[in-house]
């Protein structure tokens, strides 16, 4: 087995665990009369998996993408964690009606599945092809370290979800198809305007 083969195996394992929870949340949404407590339990489990995962990506994976990929900065900015965290907070908001939270959960699932698919189909293969094997090994080791903190906001001046260009950011060649449409749908359904504030 070559040194960098399978990179990033740690993140891919986390993806499988996240996808399993997303499938359970799908089941909750499609079964009539399911207890609201099950929704909240699954969302709490998703939060425990997702936040350390996103923090590790922001700290170790995305800097590697920015350094080695022609569209790495745009991909990293588009995949930023800020909106995923807001969507999770919205879906987990006990002040909403069951219907409102189910709708917010549907948007969350759409965004997370797009995030996972974009990484596995585009970002990971591109890094395996372009980055130095020793940097991939170092990144893999760091990604396996336990993460105890929540993801931070994007860097000042960045485009994309955390930057001044707003949630969608400018149209960037090389981003996954439909990224802008998904952002617009997500923000409309979750009540966030382009400044990231919740609309009245």
Biggest sheet: strands, sense, closure?
none
Mean pLDDT: 74
Give the quaternary arrangement of the chains. Answer: single chain
- Indicate the radius of gyration in whole angstroms: 17 Å
Task: Briefly characterize the structure.
The chain is mainly α and 200 residues long.
Keywords:
about 200 residues; mainly alpha; disordered C terminus
Question: Can you characterise this structure?
Answer:
It is a single chain. The protein contains seven helices and no strands. It is mostly helical. The longest helix has 33 residues, at 36-68. The chain is elongated, with a radius of gyration of 17 Å.
SSE topology:
Blueprint: H1 9-30, H2 36-68, H3 72-78, H4 82-91, H5 98-130, H6 133-143, H7 179-190
Helix pairs in contact: 1-2, 1-5, 2-3, 2-5, 2-6, 4-5, 5-7
């Amino acid at each position: 087995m070559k040194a960098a083969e399978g990179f990033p195996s740690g993140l891919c394992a986390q993806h499988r665990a996240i996808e399993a929870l997303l499938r359970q949340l799908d089941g909750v949404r499609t079964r009539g009369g399911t207890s609201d407590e099950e929704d909240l339990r699954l969302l709490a489990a998703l939060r425990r998996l997702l936040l350390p995962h996103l923090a590790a990506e922001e700290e170790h994976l995305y800097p590697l993408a920015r350094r080695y990929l022609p569209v790495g900065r745009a991909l990293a900015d588009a995949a930023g964690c800020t909106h995923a965290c807001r969507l999770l907070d919205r879906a987990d908001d006990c002040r909403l009606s069951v219907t409102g939270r189910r709708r917010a959960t549907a948007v969350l699932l759409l965004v997370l599945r797009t995030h996972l698919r974009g990484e596995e189909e585009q970002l990971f293969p591109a890094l395996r092809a372009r980055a130095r094997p020793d940097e991939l090994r170092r990144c893999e080791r760091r990604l396996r370290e336990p993460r105890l903190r929540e993801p931070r906001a994007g860097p000042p001046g960045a485009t994309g979800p955390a930057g001044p260009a707003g949630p969608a950011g400018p149209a960037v060649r090389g981003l996954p198809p439909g990224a802008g449409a998904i952002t617009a749908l997500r923000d409309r359904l979750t009540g966030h305007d382009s400044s990231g504030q919740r609309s009245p």
